[in-house]
Specification:
Layout (H helix, E strand, L loop, with lengths): L6 H13 L29 E10 L6 H19 L3 E9 L3 H9 L4 H18 L6 E4 L3 H16 L3 E11 L4 E3 L4 E5 L5 E5 L5 E12 L5 H10 L4 E2 L1 H12 L5 E2 L1 E3 L8 E2 L2 E6 L1 H6 L1 H5 L7 H4 L2 E6 L3 H15 L6 E5 L2 E3 L2 E2 L10 H8 L1 H11 L6 E2 L2 H24 L31 H22 L3 H22 L9 H25 L4 H11 L61
Parallel strand pairs: 1-2, 1-14, 2-3, 9-15, 14-15, 16-18
Antiparallel strand pairs: 4-5, 4-8, 6-7, 7-8, 8-10, 11-13, 12-13, 16-17
Helix pairs in contact: 6-7, 7-11, 12-13, 13-14, 14-16, 14-17, 15-16, 16-17, 17-18
This protein binds adenosine-5'-triphosphate (ATP).
Adenosine-5'-triphosphate (ATP) binds next to β1, α2 and β14.
Length: 600
């Protein structure tokens, strides 16, 4: 059997799908967790659609902040695309089969399905609570998924990519992964026994020999190399694409894709051979197709697939999955976006190790938006990041409570803004284009700030798209600092508002600052939806005015009409983000007496 990659055919297939116009709205899941209002889901003229996925999470134990991190990255991308007017679908869910689950359920004397129901519910609850706006939630124990896996298996079999053989080699139950001898090393367990472990994960491996079904993975080595070499964006960031290519430099043996039922009962039976159970990773990866209705109605969404995964499952997404898809004659995902890990004292946070930070507890202490902001502001795709409560408190206090909250408070406090309105802009106080020799009252630094905030939506969008979300937040934070500097420099509280000229300048300072805040609120929606909503409501920005398209920063400065001028502010719902005390995460934070900049 020869495999042809047909990469150009695949590319053409993507293009034809992309050029199709409006997506039928009934294709969008009506799943109740979709939180973004449909008024933001108009499709732009290009008719672009996106299908974003997180990994489905293994339900051997309750979720930790690493899982929330994957979901928050995907949520940020999904929300930003919806706000830009695209049709975006965002799927997550739980992976519920395999030996590890079978053993975890046995250890607590529970029926596996009951065990899965409970843990899956925890994940679902976490995502609802954390404002993860997924449109689909899939469980691999659902009937629809069983049918899809059986169909997918049959396609692979009919096309001659499966054969029955004897697999003999190393297997890690913790990773549900087969390993070659070069991927294994010796170690000593806690009782001093010599054991073999996986070099990559450190988990124990066992020698197994059994008859099962093999997938002709070896035939895909060169098509996979071609795909990765010809599509620099196929696996991102670059270091992970490089890693996948390095793996392909080694041997790529055929892959065992079933287990004997006597060893593994908790899974989907091989069609036509009830003595064999389908390998949990083949089963799990097919979830991405189940969500979009494979084999009947998948093509539009499937051609726009964008996976977001942790680096621990790179091999499954950059090697096995594309090989399965090529074998089944399906298009490959457009992008596999990889992120690194949250660690605790340098060790990967993991359910199996138990060194986890509980996301329920943490968001209870620091708020949902606080935790989302911290994860996305500190997480760097290329590098691991150590979790630290002190760092979290410091960051949230400085960027959300003091800088952003303080700025909002200054602009809206009744002492400075007694009429509680979006004030008028005076162009003679801040004339356009006088950057070198200011003629009004604005200074060169003020023009620099206007320039930075004007460019900010483009900068932020680019960083969101490449999933360098921390860079987007860094850029927003730098602009917030500039705006605080602007207010501080001109000290509107010192102006005498009984003088017409001072009053105009006072109002202009507030107008410009509020315009900046409106941009920050709009751009922060994908990261901290609750906090951004509070900010925009306070400024009186209506829901339909919160899209990327509606940003139009400082229209009056450019000689155009500003719809916000003179508008009454929204109700005061308290400080934007309450300062946290440095409690090292042991107790609920106490509210400090006042927010630093709020004292103004
Ligand atoms: N420490 C972590 N940092 C970032 N993301 C993580 C982390 N742990 C898990 N994830 C996310 O969850 C996915 C895999 O989830 P999985 O259910 O295997 O979690 P796990 O804690 O590694 O479990 P286990 O310890 O049982 O292997 C990863 O690909 C990644 O997207």
């Amino acid at each position: 059997m020869k495999v042809k990659p047909h990469l150009t055919v695949l590319a053409r297939c993507f293009d034809s799908v992309r050029s199709r116009s409006q997506v039928s709205s009934n294709l969008l899941s009506k799943w109740s967790y979709l939180r973004i209002s449909s008024r933001f889901t108009h499709t732009d003229s290009s008719g672009k659609v996106f299908y974003i996925t997180t990994p489905i999470f293994y339900v051997n134990a309750a979720p930790h902040i690493g899982h929330l991190y994957s979901a928050a990255i995907a949520d940020c991308l999904h929300r930003s695309r919806v706000l830009r007017g695209f049709n975006s679908r965002f799927a997550t869910g739980t992976d519920e089969h395999g030996l590890k689950i079978q053993q975890a359920a046995e250890s607590v004397h529970k029926d596996p399905l009951r065990f899965c129901n409970e843990v899956s519910e925890r994940f679902k609850h976490l995502f609802v609570r954390s404002n993860i706006s997924c449109t689909d939630f899939i469980r691999t124990t659902e009937d629809r998924h069983h049918r899809t896996v059986e169909h997918f298996w049959t396609v692979l079999q009919k096309k001659g990519f499966l054969y029955k053989g004897t697999y003999e080699g190393w297997y890690s139950t913790q990773d549900e992964s087969f390993l070659t001898p070069t991927q294994v090393t010796e170690a000593t367990d806690v009782n001093g026994n010599e054991i073999k472990i996986s070099i990559e994960s450190g988990h124990k491996v066992e020698w197994m020999k059994e008859e099962n079904y093999m997938f002709r993975l070896s035939e895909f080595r060169s098509p996979l190399q071609q795909w990765l070499k010809e599509n620099p964006s196929a696996v991102q960031p670059e270091k992970f694409r490089h890693m996948a290519l390095q793996w392909l430099d080694d041997d790529l043996p055929d892959l065992s894709v079933s287990r004997q039922k006597s060893r593994l009962q908790w899974g989907i039976a091989v069609p036509g051979d009830p003595e064999q159970t389908i390998y949990v990773w083949l089963d799990a990866l097919v979830n991405y197709l189940t969500v979009v209705g494979y084999p009947e109605s998948h093509s539009l969404w499937w051609s726009a697939a964008h996976h977001i995964v942790g680096k621990d499952i790179l091999k499954f997404h950059a090697i096995y999955w594309p090989a399965f898809l090529m074998a089944a004659g399906l298009p490959l995902p457009q992008v596999v976006n990889v992120h690194s890990h949250w660690t605790v004292q340098g060790k990967k946070m993991s359910k199996s190790l138990g060194n986890v930070v509980d996301p329920f507890d943490t968001s209870e202490r620091y708020t949902v938006d606080g935790l989302r902001y911290f994860l996305l502001r500190q997480g760097v795709p290329e590098h691991d990041c150590d979790y630290d409560d002190t760092k979290l408190v410091k960051l949230l206090n400085s960027e959300l409570a003091d800088a952003l909250g303080g700025l909002l408070n200054r602009c809206t406090a009744p002492t400075l803004n007694p009429a509680q309105v979006y004030p008028y802009f005076c162009s003679s106080s801040f004339p356009k284009g006088c950057t070198k020799e200011p003629k009004g009252r604005a200074k060169p630094e003020d023009y620099k700030m206007v320039e930075s905030v004007t460019e900010l939506p483009t900068v932020v969008q680019e960083h969101f798209e490449s999933l360098h979300i921390y860079k987007a937040l860094e850029a927003i934070s730098a602009c917030v600092r500039q705006t605080n500097g602007f207010v501080q420099r001109h000290a509107p509280w010192k102006l005498d508002c009984t003088e017409a000229c001072d009053k105009q300048w006072h109002d202009t300072i507030l107008h410009v600052s509020m315009e900046c805040l409106r941009v920050y609120g709009t751009l922060l929606q994908p990261v901290v939806p609750g906090l951004a909503d509070k900010l925009l409501c306070r400024l009186g920005v209506r829901p339909e005015e919160r899209t990327w398209e509606a940003v139009h920063f400082l229209e009056k400065y450019r000689g155009r009409k500003c719809p916000f001028e003179g508008r009454t502010l929204g109700p005061d719902r308290g400080v934007l983000f309450t300062r946290l005390e440095r409690d090292m995460g042991k107790e609920k934070p106490k509210k400090s007496k006042k927010n630093k900049l709020n004292s103004q």
